[in-house]
Each structure stands twice: as C-alpha cells, then as structure tokens.
Amino acid sequence: MAKWICVTCGTQFPASENPPSGCPICLDARQYIGHNGQQWTTLEDMRQQEFHNVVKEHEPGLIGIGTEPKFAIGQRALLVQTAEGNILWDCITYLDEQTVSEIEQRGGLKAITISHAHYYSAMADWAERFDVPIYLHEFNRPWVMRPDERIQFWSGDVLKLTGDTTVIRLGGHFTGSTVLHWEAGANGQGVLLTGDTITVVADRNWVSFMYSYPNLIPLPASEVQRIRDAILPYHFERLYAAWFDTIVPAHASEAVCRSANRYIEALNGNLL
C-alpha cells in the first residue's frame, strides 16, 4: 500500500490501496485544488524523478532545506542549531538519505515543530527517520491527515522547546498558527521564524497577514491587532518566512509592528 501525497499541498496521507477521494487541506478556503484537478504521488515515485533537496546556510546556526525542482507549495524547512539540540521548523515533503546525512552531520534533530497545516507535508516520515517528536498546537489537530504516535499536541499560547527557542501561537492564518522565536539568532539580537503566519512581501521592509494567501482573503483588523500585540514582547532583528528569499534582514520587530499598523489603517479606509 502507498502513502499518498497531494501534489498541490504536499501533504502525506496514511497508507492505502487507493488514494483518498480528495485532500481536505486543499478543499479548504485557504488553499485550492490545482487546475488539473486532484493529483497524487508518493515519496517512492518522487525518488525516481529529478527531485533533490538543497541545503543553504542563512546565518550561523540557521540552515534552510528546500526541494528542487519546486514541489507543491515550495516552502523550505529551517534547521535551528541550539546547544540543547537541533529543531526543525516547518517541514517539506521530500526526504532522502542525502538529506538525512546533511542533517546528521549538523547534529541531527531533537524535535520538529510546524507553523500550520500547509507545511505538515511528510512530517511523520521525517519524525520516524530521526526518531523525534513533532510538536503541533492542539487547535490544528483536525488538519493532521496522517496521525502518528510521535505527534504531541500542546495547548496555550507559548511552548518552550529549549532555553533559547520559544514557539508562540499567534493564530490568524489558522487558529493554531505559530511562530518560533530564536533568542540567540542574529548574534543574540533574536530571530523570528514565521512560515506564513506572518509573511514577507515584495518590499522586504514590510510583512503582511492573511487568512488565505492564494485566494487573497484578508484577516479582520482586530485579528491583525491581536497578532501584533502578541508578538510585541519579543525582540528579533531578522525574520524568516517560508521561502529562501522571504527575509526581513534587519529591524524586523519594527517592520512587523509598522506593517500591522498599516494593514489596520488600510482596512479602516485611512490609506485611501
């Protein structure tokens, strides 16, 4: 039996003889079914094609891992190297022995934690291969398509993973959407990893917040204000969103606050 993978979002499903009738994550208003309809693949099929993972250092202690050619949403995972063990932030579908070797050379994994359901991908295979837990917010439990004993659901608004890494539930994009604050990043000035709970826009001095990115459904002003206020106590010099080039390279705390204020003003009609 095959563990089927949705080609549009990259989510892996439990083993079965035939693929599911549809992908609930892509049928949701925040995602979409591709123009060619629902399509499926497997990791075994992907390994027979030209897919491979690239590993790039963003800065000391922060390693990006992404698949080429682009697959599904095209996000890259981030390996955060801490004195207490490495954290994999977000996840990608494709996994091969070369990738495993690259990660093991950098100290392996202590845990996996993921911002939201669009990046759950093949998380169970990753957790099994490295024998580590996956920490997901309990509000996102309904979006886990392949349950696994390694998944640990946490509650509340803050999860301390190591002495210098904290997962924060901000909500917005999903009720359980999270970000990871790495206190030691940027030479001790702090780094925020956001997936697309907070996304970097074309002008990298700004960010934005959406209920659905592909379908351009905004969040209400009250929700953006709540997100802004929840992240305000944390300082971070840089912000890394979901792709290799979506980075706010400096003064990122100020950029998030300034961007939230602009968003709220726009929805209130004050930018017209």
Give a nutshell description of this structure.
With 272 residues, this protein is of the alpha+beta class.
What labels describe this entry?
Metallo-beta-lactamase, Chain A, 6-stranded mixed β-sheet, 272 residues, 20 strands, single chain, alpha+beta, 7-stranded mixed β-sheet
Structure, described:
By secondary structure, the protein is α+β, with helices and mostly antiparallel strands. The protein has a single domain, classed as 4-Layer Sandwich (Metallo-beta-lactamase, Chain A), CATH 3.60.15. The protein is built from seven helices and 20 strands. The protein has a seven-stranded mixed sheet, with helices on one face. Strands 11-12-13-14-19-20 form a six-stranded mixed sheet, with helices on one face. It has a three-stranded antiparallel sheet with strand order 2-1-3. Helix 4 links the parallel strand 8 and strand 9. The longest helix has 16 residues. It is globular and about 55 Å long. The protein starts with a strand and ends in a 5-residue tail after the last helix. The mean pLDDT is 97.
